[in-house]
Amino acid sequence: MSKTTAITHFRMRQALLGLSMLAVALSGFAQADQEQPGATPFRPTVTSGATLSAPGWLELEFGGQRLGGNGVDRRNSWPYLLKYSVNDRFALLLGGDAYVLATPAQAPRISGPGDTTLTLKYRAPDAPEGISFGLEATVKLPTAADGLGSGERDFSLKGIYGLDLPNGLHLDTNLVATRLGTVLMDQGNYQWTWAAALSRQFGDAWTLAGDFSGTAQSGAPSTAQFLSSASYALSKRLVIDGGLAVGLNSHSPRFTVFSGLTVLMGKVN
Length: 269
Fold this sequence. Notes:
By secondary structure, the chain is mainly beta. The chain has one domain: Porin, CATH 2.40.160. The protein is 9% helix and 54% strand. The protein has one helix spanning 3-27, and strands spanning 57-68, 74-85, 90-103, 110-112, 116-123, 131-141, 154-164, 169-179, 190-202, 206-217, 220-235, 238-247, 255-267. The longest helix is centred in the first third of the chain and has 25 residues, at 3-27. The chain is globular. The relative contact order is 0.19.
């Protein structure tokens, strides 16, 4: 590893540590008030649930991940998601990669900010007990540094279905249609993403999950992966997580390792 690379990695670790310490401090505000809501993590699975964070409260998710193998880019990124629920039906989400460090196959290293996503999330309020439905409409804005994104807007619509199962298990499934802003010759304009996650809470703090997901697009190779993760609630307002994903075919990253946190920051109104 070169001296420049070592310095870059050190600075990224310091930034992640600083943000983690800030999140811990924020999570300590007003801990004595037992009536306050708790954090509602959307991470770390690929699959989204229909649940929303506490209405009127600002919530932040932040983490780091590294992927590579099977001829794809070796990529380190620091994803974030800022969440605000207007009420128990609608939420606004702002997300993306705060920073990306990628090494494409047979190409020089690239670094810089990633793309930004804006999402409107809807949760159906009148679903039968034990069942949940949701929708997410997302636009991806091309804010990434050169070489780290397509440079075009993408639009996607996600359907969410959740189901409580016996023995404390919960199943979430997603189907996403994405209208890509740019494609290669002979490729379809739409990419389909599927995902399904099975999770179970153990006690008041631990949650374990397994997640299958993949993509399909006309004229492009399909991808598939399996992800396993664990989450732990350090407090009512702070949840940490970590896990590993492995590719299930030669067109998927061979591995992805990740960790992160979800913190309920404060009430907005």
